[in-house]
Amino acid sequence: MGPVKSLDHYWNDRNPVALALYPLSLLYTAVVLLNRVRHRHRNRDRPRLPVRGVIVVGNLTVGGTGKTPMVVWLCGLLKDHGYRPGVVSRGYGGQARHWPRLVTPESDPAQVGDEPVLMAIRSGCPVYVDPDRNRAARALLAAHDCDIIVADDGLQHHALQRDLEIVMVDGQRRLGNGLCLPAGPLREPPGRLDEVDFVVINGTPRPGEQAMQLTGTLALSLQQPQQVMALEALWGQRVHALAGIGHPPRFFDMLTAAGLEVIPHAFPDHHPYTVDEIRFDDGLPVLMTEKDAVKCRDMAGPEHWFVPVSAVPEPALASAILRAVQTLDRLHRLR
């Protein structure tokens, strides 16, 4: 008898296991659609947040698609053009007892989640977390002079009124077998893509989609982040690679493409590491994602490095987003 396969193993095509789960998928889809209708009705009577725009960055599928780098890039784009963005997020994995919470670069990922800490470090914007994104947004606006909200992973949080929706799609896995949970990887039916403002592909786009690449060329020491090494300095060397993200092979493939001989160690998304999981005592460098590094910085030795990645969308996307935000601004001023 072979090893038990995880459910996501069956999400690439419409195999017997996926088809057997299809009735549950229909039930899940019905609940999702009813939830959307309920919140749309409630939102008619709710005052909109007092900002120039609310932009949601999310995805349709379970697993990583590059949302966090996109949020960081979007915040930089908005700041460069005179806006004052703030970020709200659910704080997935955070064990805090009281919400909302301000996230700083020094925050404990165990309390507020790993991705919010990473966004606080990279974006330079105020970041608030709360399972209730509206409450997070109100706390953010009460404490900071922000005029635009960027919601991380809020596509399915329909209680949050939004002006623009950006959906991230992994270029390799795309929408899998096209079925909703648990028969497939989708959180909402595929037709949802027709309703959003921008579909951004982490890879090669199709017509109507925008392209984005993730690039990482440097490694930084966890113990001394000011110590920087070019990845090409490790060309041809064996390295341990740790990734507790939505799609670990993406990180391993990036290192392999840079010429490294990778010993992969894949962990579940948002994995809480222990010392034994990141130490190998063989003298080889240990490389990890920046998202993992925020959880491992207090356990790291001199052999531990992280590789920050940046989103590089095609230039047309920046222009289109800025035009859309400017249009929103004019519309809100007329109301």
Q: Key terms for this structure?
A:
335 residues; Rossmann fold; six-stranded mixed sheet; globular; alpha/beta; nine-stranded mixed sheet
Name the strands of the widest sheet in spatial order: 3-4-2-5-1-6-7-8-15
According to CATH, the fold-level topology of the largest domain is Rossmann fold
Secondary-structure element order, N to C: HHEHEEHHEHEEEEEEEHEHEHEEH
Backbone structural class: alpha/beta
The CATH architecture of the largest domain can be named as: 3-Layer(aba) Sandwich
CATH class categorisation of the largest domain = Alpha Beta
Number of strands: 15
Shape: globular
How many domains is the backbone divided into? 2
Model regions low in confidence, pLDDT < 50 over at least 5 residues: none
Helix residue percentage: 25-40%
Binding site for ATP: 61-68
EC number: 2.7.1.130
Function: Transfers the gamma-phosphate of ATP to the 4'-position of a tetraacyldisaccharide 1-phosphate intermediate (termed DS-1-P) to form tetraacyldisaccharide 1,4'-bis-phosphate (lipid IVA).
Keywords: ATP-binding, Kinase, Lipid A biosynthesis, Lipid biosynthesis, Lipid metabolism, Membrane, Nucleotide-binding, Transferase, Transmembrane, Transmembrane helix
